[in-house]
Amino acid sequence: MITPDEAELCYPHLGNYSCRRIVRPHSVYVLLYIILSSISVLTVTLNLLVIIAISHFKKLHSPTNFLLLSLAVSDFCVGFIFIFDILLLDNCWYLSAGWCMFHVVLSIIVPTASTGSIVLISIDRYIAVCDPLHYPTKVTVNRANISVVLCWFCSALYTLGLLENIKHPGGFNSCIGECMPLMHPVVIILDIFLTLIFPAIVIIILYVRVFVVAVSQARAMLSHVAVVKLQGSVKVNKSELKAARVLGVVVVVFLLCYTPAYLVSSLYGTLSTFYFVKCLYYFNSLLNPMIYVFFYPWFRKCVKYILSLQILKSGSSQHTVKRESC
């Protein structure tokens, strides 16, 4: 018969070698599983729609949209990572040490690549708004694709060098049933700087510059300073500024969702608190495609086209879609 103390262990038959589990009422577990599973499914589904839309429709094959595709891929992966975190609701890991390491590595590579994609998108918008005449030559599809590949490669390389227990899965666990990354305190501080503080500074500086240019252009248009010859470029800048505003919303949501998780992890908060902010951290991946749905008519049009299975028709990739940068 299992005693109350043994009921709080992940592996009761191992006694003190087992990690302690978080005991919650059954109704709370059911509610959490339903909510978190729904978030996971929605995250995977919505980001899959973004991936299909940009990949399938050739009219959307622009440098900015390929950077957005990278962000959607990372958000899509987050939906699967979330499944592992649902398994950790009671603070117990019941899968093998190899799967634990896979989860840990993926949970660092994907958010790091997501942050890198956000930075690349910010740079893209900065060049498009602040240097529109040279944008077509500076930012090409090939350069965007190379940037995306380098972003993911550096994220993987960074993650492999970050973890101390990568070569010995489960060898440094304090108890059986634990699945946590092992990092030196100095490395944790360095990680916070490289994956949050530094990217946030770069993003904020770029968007402040974009905002200043947007305001100056608006004033110039209102005071009729713009020369007639520049009307064409001003029209282009309007669409670029619209894209910059939408991506500005993406960046703000990104910072609001990611900052609490990094602050709590650096301060070694309690597990329950950390789990809440970790969910907020992953919830950002669900919000991104929802932002596109609300702000971009072309995305809603693509979704209808995909869900009606019209993309299976011959020549559907050439379907006319309003070509806007995301």
Automatic annotation (TrEMBL):
This chain's protein is named Trace amine-associated receptor 6-like
Q: What is its main location?
A: membrane
Reading the lineage from the top rank, the first entry is Eukaryota
Question: Which GO molecular function annotation, any one, does this entry have?
Answer: trace-amine receptor activity
- The transmembrane segments are 30-54, 66-89, 101-123, 144-163, 183-212, 246-268, 280-299
- Which residue range or ranges hold the G-protein coupled receptors family 1 profile domain? 46-292
Q: Where in the cell is it found?
A: Cell membrane
Q: Which family does it belong to?
A: Belongs to the G-protein coupled receptor 1 family.
SUPFAM superfamilies membership: Family A G protein-coupled receptor-like
Keywords recorded for this protein, A-Z: Cell membrane, G-protein coupled receptor, Membrane, Receptor, Transducer, Transmembrane, Transmembrane helix
Which membrane topology describes this protein?
A: Multi-pass membrane protein
A matching Pfam family = 7tm_1
Q: Quote a single Gene Ontology cellular component term.
A: plasma membrane
